[in-house]
Amino acid sequence: MTVLGASGIDAPSVRPLLAVQTEPDGPTAPSLIGDPPRRRTYSNGGGSGYAAIFTDDYHGTGLESGGAIDAATSFRYSVVGDDELTLRTMDAGPGRRSGTIGPRDEHVLFWLTRGSSVMHFADATRLVTPGRPCVASAAEAYRFESDGTCYNGLHLADGLVRRTATQLRIPLPSGPVLFDQQDDLTATRALLRTTIMRLGPALSDDRVRGPLRAALNQEIAMVVFRCFPLRHLRGLAPTTPVWRAVELLRGRLEEPTTLEDVAAAAGIGARGVQQAFARSFGVAPLEFLRMRRLDAARLALLFATPATRVSEISERLRFQNAGRFAASYRARFGESPSRTLDAQRSAPAAKRTI
To answer: What is the pTM (predicted TM-score) of this model?
Structure first.
């Protein structure tokens, strides 16, 4: 997927980075926590078959085109991400194709950058043209006809969607989770695409893994709920107390914030918001904020400029004690903040982009 823009707080002119190999800080400290994102790229030039991808990745059946679907069919397909969220690009090449996409374990949100497609759902037919995001819920099968399409896609595991909804106290249906399409006003705001442009470099970076990747996955899931209404809620916005509190905290990384501030945003008492966060996240609201600040610090260090200093980032993110900040950072990410910054500075400039 082609993505532009910055990731994290204030990171200037950020672009995707290759993994940086570092030695551990100590004999038992891992340099990174968690598995790196998986990457896959297929093309007709690499001997991969379009039909196999259509069947295996999309549960597709009945594939047809203007010509034979074989290893010579022009296409390029790339995937990066983890078990819960992947960013994908499919350049299907010229010509018409049609088929049926079956129910999946993932909700697929995509927007065309070229071509057009018609999607036939059980209750409606939708013409998809470049620029406007479209959603295909995991449980829905649909038939499509496409012509010369290239699309950028976001695949979210149904489990991620359900867990995020549960944590934010969004009521879930008794059956499948089904999204409606965006209305015109929401589409005009382009919140989903701008979020992917902002976070795409981090999600494509081999060093963004473990708790940080999980937090970014959750942030994108929240954006999906804002952009695509849940059918069983009849288009109502998900404005639960926990949702409102999390929205406040994500916007207060660099500002002093008290428990009373969080309670006021949630619309419930301080004790109530404490109990709600304990049930949803297993931590208190201000501890949740501290973890998001640590995540922001890591992103800033991963995408740092030569002039960046650890103290500058920690102070901006309201960490008053340098020693405690370093200890918390190491506990969350498996290496010290200075180690992250040194690795970024030592990365050859020619290897810093993909």
So the answer is: 0.84
